[in-house]
From TrEMBL:
Pfam families: FUSC_2 (PF13515). Belongs to the YccS/YhfK family. Keywords: Cell membrane, Membrane, Transmembrane, Transmembrane helix. GO terms for cellular component: plasma membrane. It is found in: Cell membrane. It comes from the Bacteria. The keyword Repeat does not apply. This is Membrane protein. The keyword Transmembrane helix applies. The chain crosses the membrane at residues 31-63, 98-116, 123-143, 149-168, 418-442, 462-480, 487-504, 510-527, 539-559. Residues 429-551 form the Integral membrane bound transporter domain. InterPro entries: Memb_transporter_dom (IPR049453). PANTHER family: MULTIDRUG RESISTANCE PROTEIN MDTO, P-HYDROXYBENZOIC ACID EFFLUX PUMP SUBUNIT-RELATED.
Length: 762
């Protein structure tokens, strides 16, 4: 991509206003907290202290709005306290330019490094540096600076108290995340009717898992319907894919395919009904047609083998989902409202290796009642401790420190960002101080707020900040000229602007920055500054800060494009370990000496997400990877998606503990693990990987050892996906040797369908 095209795309992205769900009650709560702080401070201490406390409350509210499933009051207090410390130290050194520049450099560098600990901490630290540049100009003495700092802490405490006293949709975000996951699977089931290898976006399932991380205290009050449905949803996903995939036995057309389409349509209806019930906290209302589809005895005579087992497991899992969503045993519900679909045929135990089974609230009820027809044997209660624990704020400190230490090297994008933003901030402050404009802090403030560790965000935010500043300043100035507000009216307008920013902050940077610009104009006007003293210099210095930020990234970049091969290699290695863990369980159904499938799957999913994020960033960068073209990257990603997808299909048919083992699967699992590790090393070194070990393991397979063709067929499809990966990466004109083998001699492809399905979506 050329620089001109990259700049055009980032400009369009920065000025875009997205349609998103607004949260007016949350915005109102933040605005009320800010108004209370401003009003009390004005009445007791005057405009200068009110402005400081308002900045503290403003930043604290933003901290509670970050991507968190439950607003953390601790974040508001931590934000207000850290801003208070920054302001006090900044005021003490502010009269000595060199000393203050040293403090500013240290503070900015630490804020840049804090992005290693996560976007929430990074944004809070960055905002503290930016706001400090303004607040240090407000006190007039050391005692006044201490008072201003104390009021900032009070502002954060007020916002924290409002979060506790007035919670908004206490479990609403969790309900939405889980309902979205079930609704996505319902849509997936319907699409599989027409496209047996239809792709599936894993984002809803990943989001639901993130929402499931809660503190032990929250676990005691979590609604029952949120306890176990996520685990069931993750287990349903591969069963749907295995039921529809022609590679595992269902012909593309015929009565078996027609029956599968009916089951998939009914599954979609059941999942949609469960999603609606969980989202709104209401009883499950199942369509009678869906219930009758699963209760008909015809399925057992039409489907045989792997499709038969997949249909059985699907019916049992859907029964569990409905039971969790309605909060009552399926046998006690009526067919027209909350009855659960019975499994279509005699069941196979639906345990999935690495899963903890149903939640305690459901497992206990199931263990105490007689199994329903077609449901299978009851499972024992799940022991406590299956909750995904979210650590408290203090527990995050060691992890954050470790992440920062890990990224503290010149090759790290975060360290390069810290050095870049520090240089720009110090340069901007020095330039703003020397220019005869006054209020020189606008330039470094704009720079530190727009700079991010990646190119596209930095450039898009720079455009959005300047455009939003122009709009916000123009609107606020016009209102000031028309209304001539006094101190209290200016404070009210500042609170209203902040509330509008809280409401629109999810819609894009342009709208949010316009509200922030108006907020600052009104807040400084509350202290008696005229618009002619702030508007021209704010616009000019904001432009200077944005230009400095964009120039710094062009001169000292941290491109994602050169790291694409490393991300691809990580995904290959993780997918290989996942596939090997699944295949190993066919050799040892008890799983005593096998890797945990669930752990391997989560690692593969993380690697896949890192690859996709890197690929998305690279698409907007004005550089080109000389060792991996865009087409090769797309083909390689598709091949790895197919590799993970086949492993997922094999996991959907994991044998029961009492099933006879398949000894040849052990050799295949070892070959997969070793070959993919070597292949990942080859990808990093710009060589083409080869898969002779996997092919040899399949060639040595004795067909008589496999009573079920699933694992043998799956191994063939795994080899095909690996060969497709090598084909995608084999762009060299001359042959290259990998492990002594000519890589231009391609492995034969096995027959079987393939598709763009993403793999690790559970």
């Amino acid at each position: 991509m050329t620089w001109w095209r990259a700049l055009r795309q980032t400009t369009r992205s920065g000025l875009a206003v997205e349609r998103t769900r607004l949260e007016p009650l949350v915005a109102l709560r933040g605005a009320v907290g800010l108004a209370v702080v401003i009003g009390v401070s004005l009445a007791l201490f005057g405009p200068a202290v009110a402005a400081s406390s308002a900045f503290g409350a403003f930043q604290a509210a933003i901290a509670t709005f970050q991507r968190s499933w439950r607003p953390r009051p601790e974040l508001a207090i931590a934000s207000g306290t850290s801003l208070a410390i920054s302001t006090f130290l900044g005021y003490l050194t502010g009269s000595h330019l060199l000393l203050f520049l040293a403090l500013l450099a240290l503070w900015t560098f630490l804020a840049g490094l804090s992005w290693s600990a996560g976007p929430t901490i990074g944004l809070i630290a960055t905002s503290n540096v930016a706001i400090m540049l303004v607040t240090i100009t407000l006190p007039t003495s050391v005692a006044a600076a201490a008072g201003h700092a104390a009021m900032m802490v009070v502002g954060g405490a007020v916002q924290a108290a409002l979060v506790i006293v007035f919670p908004v949709r206490r479990w609403g975000a969790h309900r939405d995340a889980l309902a979205d996951a079930l609704a996505a699977e319902a849509d997936y089931a319907r699409r599989l009717r027409h496209d047996p290898v239809a792709p599936f976006d894993p984002a809803p399932l990943m989001t639901a898992r993130a929402a499931a991380h809660i503190t032990p205290r929250q676990a005691r009050t979590r609604p029952a319907e949120l306890h176990g449905a996520r685990g069931l949803a993750e287990r349903i996903r591969p069963v749907l894919a295995s039921l529809a995939d022609p590679a595992l036995g269902v012909p593309a057309e015929g009565p078996e395919r027609d029956r599968v389409r009916e089951l998939l349509a009914a599954a979609g209806a059941v999942l949609d009904a469960a999603a609606r019930a969980i989202r709104h906290g209401t009883p499950v209302d199942l369509p009678p047609a869906a219930i009758s589809t699963f209760r008909t005895p015809d399925t057992g005579t039409i489907l045989k083998g792997p499709p038969h087992r997949a249909a059985t497991r699907l019916g049992t899992l859907l029964r569990d989902v409905v039971e969790v969503a309605t909060g009552t045993p399926a046998s006690a519900s009526t067919p027209s409202t909350a009855s659960a679909p019975a499994a279509p045929v005699a069941p196979v135990a639906p345990a999935v290796v690495g899963d903890h089974g149903p939640p305690p609230s459901v497992g206990t009820a199931r263990a105490e009642r007689t199994a329903l027809p077609g449901e299978g044997r009851p499972r024992p209660p799940t022991p406590p401790g299956g909750t995904l624990v979210r650590p408290g704020l203090t527990a995050l400190v060691p992890a954050a420190s470790k992440a920062i230490r890990t990224d503290l090297n010149r090759r790290s994008p975060v360290t390069r960002h810290a050095l870049r933003v520090t240089t720009v901030t110090v340069t901007g402050y020095a330039a703003g101080t020397l220019l005869p404009l006054g209020h020189g802090y606008w330039a470094p403030m704009a720079a530190v707020m727009v700079m991010r560790p990646d190119f596209s965000q930095t450039y898009a935010r720079a455009v959005a900040r300047f455009g939003g500043t122009l709009v916000g300043v123009a609107l606020a100035t016009a209102l000031v000229q028309l209304a001539h507000p006094g101190t209290y009216l200016s404070g009210a307008l500042a609170a209203a602007s902040a509330g509008l920013m809280y409401l629109l902050m999810r819609t894009g940077q342009f709208a949010a920055q316009a509200c922030v610009a108006a907020y600052v104009v009104f807040l400084l006007g509350m202290g008696g500054e005229q618009w002619t003293q702030t508007v021209p210099e704010r616009v000019v210095l904001t432009l200077i800060g944005g230009i400095l930020a964009m120039a710094a990234y062009a001169l000292f970049p941290a491109w994602e494009t050169p790291r694409l091969r490393t991300r691809l290699a990580d995904w290959l290695a993780a997918n290989g370990r996942y596939a090997a863990a699944v295949v190993a369980h066919y050799a040892d159904p008890a799983g005593k000496n096998c890797p945990d499938v669930r752990t391997a799957l989560l690692a593969a999913r993380t690697a896949r997400a890192s690859w996709q994020e890197a690929l998305e960033r690279a698409e907007h960068e004005p550089v080109r990877h000389r060792g991996l073209s865009r087409a090769a990257a797309a083909d390689a990603g598709q091949a790895l998606s197919q590799l993970g997808r086949v492993a997922m299909l094999l996991e959907a048919h994991l044998p029961d503990r009492g099933t006879p083992p398949v000894p040849a699967a052990a050799a295949l699992a070892d070959a997969l693990r070793t070959a993919t590790d070597r292949g990942a090393r080859a990808v990093r070194e710009r060589r083409v990987p080869e898969w002779n070990a996997v092919r040899d393991a399949l060639d040595a397979w004795d067909p008589g050892e496999a009573p079920d063709r699933v694992v043998r067929r799956g191994g063939t499809l795994l080899l095909r996906a690996l060969a497709d990966l090598s084909d995608a990466l084999d762009t060299a004109a001359a042959p290259m040797l990998v492990d002594g083998t000519d890589t231009n001699v391609r492995t034969e492809k096995a027959d079987g369908p393939q598709g763009p399905e993403d793999p690790t979506t559970r």
